[in-house]
Amino acid sequence: MDTLNTFYGPDKVVPQLYNDVVVVFAGCFVACKVSWTDLQALCRRAKVECIELDVKKSSFDDYEVEYIADYIKKNGKEYFFIKWKGYPESESTWEPRRNLKCPKQLKVFMSDVEAALRRQQRSRTTKDTIELDQRAVGYLIQKAKQRQALRCWETQINKKSRHKGRIYVQNEVDMEGPPRYFTYIEDYKVGDGVEITPTALGCECQDCFSHPVAGCCPGLAQHRLAYTNRGVVRVRPGMPIYECNSNCRCGPNCLNRVVQRGIQHNLCIFRTDNGRGWGVRTLERINRNAFVMEYLGEIITTEEAERRGEAYDSQGATYLFDLDYVDDVFTVDAAYYGNVSHFVNHSCEPNLQVYNVFIDNLDERLPRIALFATRYIRAGEELTFDYKMQIDTVDAESSRMDYSLAAADGPSRKRMRVECKCGVESCRKYLF
User: Fold this and answer.
1) 3-state class of 294 per DSSP?
2) Distance, C-alpha 102 to centroid of its chain
3) What does DSSP assign to residue 187?
């Protein structure tokens, strides 16, 4: 739920509603667990003015459409059955179109009406008269509640996010709602048996790009700056990237701080229509070699990854990403904790490439996994990476990096073959 984290102080008067009775407590200290719009609707319904919520006497008779539950058209006149925000379903009312001031909501609803009729193989043969049966109405209500749940999830994601890019959520394919057992995170979750030691060193540069001091942080990569002055990666895949860290004297606008700024493009988690579940598309163009996102999750040991992998294999899916930059010791598991990268699908011809990045931790066994664009990506295009990506080892730091998602096959078990549905001409037919 979209909740308020605001605490009303001792000088506030907070209205509390119990069984439609308003009880006002003076001098209380309460953490509000009701969404902002729901609380506004409750105050208007109870005729309670609230400065913080911008509820005044003049707005007591304002009503907000929560969703549209039914539709009828007789003799060319349209009526909509409205569930009002803050009111029980028993108080829903039929309203003519002229009473509704929600054009976007109406447009989406009418599209759902068409879908409901198609599901029943009915058509609008009579333009002046349309009446929906119970099955169609049930579909419309279910679809409306699904959109509400997805909007709440979208709001939660963006409230947690500290980056510039906004994440949108869309499902126009089926009735699937937000993942039930998935927690969206903004940084790695450290699992049992894993210890991350932050670096105590930082560069002394005022301008790391124009006037680096003693090689700056890229000195760890033989003094090669990983990024151009436009912030796109210029080192070859397989080469490590050393960004400036929290101990460096340079500011947040340093050109050697790219991955740590987070997602910069607006992205959309969407439901695919070919059986691949959720996917991610970009809502704006992305330049070649630009940073797109990190692959985040829970960092676990390879022993724990082996145990979890057996369970994931039985489900025909996995989110285990081996951190085998120098040693196959740790794995990132994004099954239950992760960010938008959790929903990025595989392709045998991907438009994203994996890089190892080091920022506040220089342990070569624990790189951050960053995804950069391999080419220019158009707005609306789905983002993909190769779950079995191979790196040309010429000039690469490590000769054994394969950047494989779920590559921990291990001698104790044989990985199930998972069919690939990327659809490209060069498709290998199987993910693993």
Assistant:
1) strand
2) 27
3) S
- What are the distances in angstroms from CA 57 to CA 49, 61, 349? 6, 8, 60
DSSP state of 237: T
Helix 103-119, helix 134-160: angle, nearest 10: 130
Count of residues for the chain?
Answer: 432
pTM greater than 0.85: no
Do residues 334 and 297 lie in contact, with contact meaning Cβ atoms separated by under 8 Å? yes
| pLDDT tens profile 327-354 | 778 999 999 999 999 999 999 899 999 9
- E strand intervals along 211-351: 241-242, 267-271, 278-282, 291-294, 298-301, 320-323, 330-333, 337-338, 345-346
CA dihedral 239, 245, 249, 250 (to 10 degrees): 60
Tell whether the model's pLDDT for residue 295 goes beyond 70: yes
Residue 408 has pLDDT above 50, yes or no: no
Q: Is 70 helix (H, G, I), strand (E, B) or coil?
A: strand
Q: Which of 42, 67, 44, 70 is nearest to 55 (CA)?
A: 44
Alpha carbon distance 65, 94 (integer Å): 12
CA distance 256 to 384: 25
Question: 96-110: string of b/e by CB count within 10 Å (b at 16+)?
Answer: eeeebeeeebbebbe
* 8 Å CB contact between 354 and 385: yes
Check if the beta carbon of residue 181 is closer than 8 Å to that of residue 336. yes
